[in-house]
Amino acid sequence: MSGFFITGTDTGVGKTCVALGLMVALKKSSASVLGMKPVASGCVRTDEGLRNEDARQLQLLGDVSVPYVQVNPYAFEPAVAPHLAAAEAGVVIDPASIVKCYKMLARSADVLVVEGVGGWKVPLGDNYAVSDLALALDLPVILVVGLRLGCINHALLTAQAIQRDGIRPAAWVANQLDPDYPMLAPTLDSLSDRLHMPMLGYIPFMQIRDLDRIAACLDLDSLPV
């Protein structure tokens, strides 16, 4: 079993789009795939409990039917930073519980795509952040760069933090958020020259998400074996 940890330069940069697109691309390459979103805020109440739409999509796209609570063991209703939502709910996010769910899922697929929450240094608790979770899972990281004003600075700082934390950077993805983003080609060149990791793909702006199209934008050959 292998896997990847999807992180981003910020919240709302397309981590879920990339995670789902990567799952589709891997499935087309004949790999069995499962998705996981260990921590999610902004969940809705259902008869089955709190559910997060992104986590639900990751669950449904998997090749094997697995319980939602394994895909998303920590779900919180407020759409705020997870450590704040957890504190409000009186819950402590336990990394060991996440690793346990990860290992259960890992038995059922060739590749496990794990989506983080927010950005790389978003706290999950006291002295514990998303970066520590990626380290605990020991997965190479795919960095999603949302192409919008300030993205070069955010991307370089995040990449620097990933490397400084001793995590294996696998690749980066450019995801165009603004249909009229200026200086697109020079921005991509600047990022490619400075990120020091392979580029998995460039995803153009899409008014409606098309997972097959996103998958076609990703070059699996750029990923570590």
Describe this structure in a few short sentences:
By secondary structure, this protein is of the alpha/beta class. It has nine helices and twelve strands.
Number of strands: 12
Structural category: alpha/beta
Approximately what portion of the residues adopt beta-strand conformation?
15-25%
What value does the average pLDDT take?
Answer: 95
Shape annotation: globular
Task: Provide the succession of SSEs.
Answer: EHEEEEHHEHHEEEHEHEHEH
- Proper CATH architecture: 3-Layer(aba) Sandwich
Number of domains: 1
Helix content: 25-40%
How are strands sequenced across the largest beta sheet?
2-7-1-10-11-12
Task: Please report the number of helical segments.
Answer: 9
Please mark out the parts with pLDDT under 50 across 5 or more consecutive residues, or reply none: none
Cα-atom radius of gyration:
16 Å
User: Main beta sheet, described?
Assistant: 6 strands, parallel
- First-last Cα distance: 11 Å
CATH superfamily annotation: P-loop containing nucleotide triphosphate hydrolases
Instruction: Classify the fold: give the CATH topology.
Output: Rossmann fold
At the first level of CATH, the class is Alpha Beta
Describe this structure in words.
With 225 residues, this protein is an alpha/beta fold. The chain has one domain: 3-Layer(aba) Sandwich (Rossmann fold), CATH 3.40.50.300. The chain contains 9 helices and 12 strands. The chain has helices at 15-28, 53-61, 68-71, 82-89, 95-106, 130-137, 151-164, 184-195, 211-216; strands spanning 2-8, 33-36, 39-40, 44-46, 49-51, 74-75, 111-115, 123-125, 128-129, 141-147, 169-176, 199-203. The strands form 4 sheets. It has a 6-stranded parallel beta sheet, with helices on both faces. Strand 11, helix 8 (184-195) and strand 12 form a beta-alpha-beta unit. Helix 1 packs parallel to helix 2 (53-61) and helix 7 (151-164) packs parallel to helix 8 (184-195). It starts with a strand and ends in a 9-residue tail after the last helix.
